[in-house]
Amino acid sequence: MFDNDGEWDMATLAVRAGQVRSQESEHGEAIFPTSSYVFASAAEAAARFAGEIPGNIYSRFTNPTVRTFEQRLAAMEGAEACVATASGMAAILALCMGLLRSGDHLVASRSIFGTTVILFNKYLARFGIETSFVDLTDLSQWQAALRPNTRLLFLETPSNPLTEVADIRQLADLAHDQGALLAVDNCLCTPVLQRPLALGADIIIHSATKYLDGQGRCVGGAVLGDAKQVGEEVFGVLRTCGPSMSPFNAWVFLKGLETLQVRMQAHCRNADELARRLQDHPQVERVYHPSLESHPQHGLAQRQQAGSGGVLAFDIKGGREAAWGVIDSTCLLSITANLGDVKSTITHPATTTHGRLSPEERQQIGLGEGLLRLSVGLESIEDIWNDLLRGLNRSA
User: What residues of the chain score a pLDDT lower than 70?
Assistant: First the structure.
């Protein structure tokens, strides 16, 4: 049986960690599609429910397949605990419900996912949790936003869609000096390219829907951190409120983790090459990708990440009309707002992922009408490039 506590490389952990074989001695991980579990006696049932002995109780919060996914991802991120959830947004909500209370203050990057902004501004605010938004890369703004009741700093790095990179270690030090926690959404990098806990972060958030799955099949999320904050407090939210990951989805994510390292390396190669080609095209005003020396945080990304990631964005001349024209001219790229797929996807963030933000909010984060976001897949780079050229040359 695989020793989860051994000194294993990332690729090995992605394939082996977390699996506990049943009495059937299966080689592949089993799916346990059950809602409940049978106890040997009334006394055993009482002890399980009271937490006096370990074991499965009810699949809302204890399921062997989900547990295997949690343990595998925790091993890859270097975390003590992982709580799997029904979606990435459920992970963020569970984090906030588990660790914040009325009267607390949250500082967040302006560059987080648009739906997360709405969660903070509309829903957390109803329960007396106030949020201040700051520029992701401006440490002075983070520092100025801190209050005596600040309990959490929340960010995505790299950001979506502009791929800005925050200095995790600096922000962790800032948070800890304040007595606050630092939560990092590691969706765009995954543990293959970036390990926030090793840089001082306290909490990691994942939308497993993206690269962890890698083929756009299922929706899920995860919160990772220590045994107390995540293993008890966030887990308590899952147990009571029920934003649970299904066993089938957990099994799909396990299969995704097995190939995560080779996929992320291939995504990075394609995205790096595409970014270089796009910056030389006359209809492109600017390309946003950390692999480029023109990127403001290129040096930081080189130090903090093991690769530049598979997501890039670029501004095209002509605003929304030209941007939509590029999208509509493609025949290979998938027009969808999802990312992290082996299939390349293209979207217009101002009217999709960030469409619920006001024009002023989009302007604050530098998200214009001519911006397109690409999640670069694993197709031939020449085919991806030629598909983009149809629209780029049309708008010339």
Answer: 1-2, 4-6, 395-396
Measured N-to-C along each axis, helices 381-394 and 260-279 cross at an angle, to the nearest 10 degrees, of 30
Nearest to 18 by CA among 87, 61, 77, 86: 77
Whether pTM exceeds 0.90: yes
Question: Which of helix, strand or coil describes residue 71?
Answer: helix
The pair of structure tokens assigned to 240 is 């009571």
Domains of the chain as residue ranges with CATH: 10-258 (3.40.640.10), 261-394 (3.90.1150.10)
Residues contacting 324, CB < 8 A, separation 6+? 348
- How many beta carbons lie within 10 A of that of residue 73, not counting itself? 28
Q: Which residues of 305-318 are buried (b: 16+ CB within 10 A; e: fewer)?
A: bbbbbbbbbbbbeb
C-alpha pair distances (Å), 39 with each of 44, 60, 198, 252, 279: 6, 17, 40, 28, 63
Q: Using alpha carbons only, what angle is made at residue 360 by residues 355 and 364, rounded to the nearest 5 degrees?
A: 100
Whether the Cβ atoms of residue 109 and residue 294 lie closer than 8 Å to each other? no
